[in-house]
Amino acid sequence: MEIKPGRPVTFGRWRSAWFCGLPGNPVATMATFYLLLRPALQRLQGESPGPGVRFSAASAESLRKHPGRTEIQRGVLFTGPDGTLQVRTTGRQGSGVLSSMSKANCFILLEHERGKVEAGEAVTVLPFEQLRH
Question: With contact defined as beta carbons under 8 Å apart, do 56 and 125 qualify?
């Protein structure tokens, strides 16, 4: 699976030891830990990790995206004036923009084949709240 941000990642076993190598950019490290390594660690501990909390929210803005890879954007989930759940990005989405994580309360998951998102379209949201467990 190709995700942005999130390269390079390695995970494996050498004799009796498990290892993981995460990307060097801070946001890429956080995103890959959250999406890939955390569930792997839970499984190694004997837990049965579920898919995590995911739901749809209306995008408050248009989002640039080209089909062909999964993209994880940092977002701010909020209740709009009409009472619906909405999400917007934190701004610049480069994998070295650490401030995008400190402003975010969720990830916006843009699926592999999805293209540009228009304002008002539904997107998948992964709230950070579940990280407390």
Answer: yes
In single-letter form, the type of residue at position 16 comes to S
Q: Domains along the chain?
A: 3-44 (no CATH), 55-132 (2.40.340.10)
Enter the pTM of the model: 0.82
Q: What is the pLDDT along the chain (133 residues), one digit of tens a residue?
A: 677 877 788 889 999 999 888 888 888 888 888 888 888 888 888 988 776 788 999 999 999 998 998 999 999 999 999 999 999 999 888 777 788 888 999 999 999 999 999 999 999 999 987 555 4
Backbone phi, then psi, for 71, in 5-degree steps? -120, 140
Cβ atoms within 10 Å of 74's Cβ, excluding its own: 25
